[in-house]
């Protein structure tokens, strides 16, 4: 009856996703974020009373319809995927990746190390370098280097000084690098000048 729709909300605002199904049998709901189940989110609505930057991502709802007596396997349907974008609240702005790396050497080193660490079924420094236009010859020359992560970050700082932490993290979600997103999650926004 109702599919969740894309949402944009300022940090601290209320955001609601709705999913509604009808049928003659028992209907249950299970919300997912980035294809992972959200524990205890089993209502037809997913409510964020005060949305936080780390809440950004893709949400869907798994709907099950069963006869309630376990006589047959329940019918399982997945809603459309709806994206949540979290925007800066009043007086704030998106922070640039270069600002974070300039202000915090520890985060720069952490992100660089994580970029070059292989994670099963996830992208790394090569995918980031390719996405943001690093020349193929340069990427090839980094193959055996112990500083691949630092080189890619150096390239991003020079070639993409206006890249926001938020946009970078949205791409990191695409290549399944939640470990790097976690390292950057407290640095999405900055006080507006």
UniProtKB/TrEMBL annotation:
Domain named Ig-like: residues: 1-76
Record protein name field: Ig-like domain-containing protein
SUPFAM superfamilies recorded: Immunoglobulin
Pfam families in the record: Ig_3
Residue runs in coiled coils: none
Gene3D superfamilies, alphabetized: Death Domain, Fas, Immunoglobulins
């Amino acid at each position: 009856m109702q599919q969740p729709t894309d949402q944009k909300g300022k940090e601290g605002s209320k955001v609601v996703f709705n999913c509604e199904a009808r049928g003659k049998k028992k209907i249950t709901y299970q919300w997912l974020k980035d294809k992972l189940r959200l524990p205890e989110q089993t209502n037809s609505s997913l409510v964020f009373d005060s949305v936080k930057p780390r809440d950004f991502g893709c949400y869907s709802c798994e709907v099950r319809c069963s006869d309630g007596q376990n006589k047959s396997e329940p019918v399982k349907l997945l809603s459309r995927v709806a994206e949540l974008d979290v925007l800066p609240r009043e007086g704030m702005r998106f922070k640039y990746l270069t600002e974070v790396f300039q202000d915090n050497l520890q985060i720069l080193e952490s992100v660089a190390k994580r970029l070059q660490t292989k994670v099963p079924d996830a992208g790394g420094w090569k995918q980031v370098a390719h996405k943001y236009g690093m020349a193929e010859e340069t990427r090839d020359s980094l193959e055996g280097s112990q500083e691949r992560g630092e080189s890619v970050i150096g390239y991003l700082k020079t070639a993409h000084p206006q890249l926001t932490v938020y946009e970078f993290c949205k791409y990191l979600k695409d290549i399944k690098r939640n470990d790097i997103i976690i390292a950057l999650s407290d640095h999405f926004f900055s006080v507006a000048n």
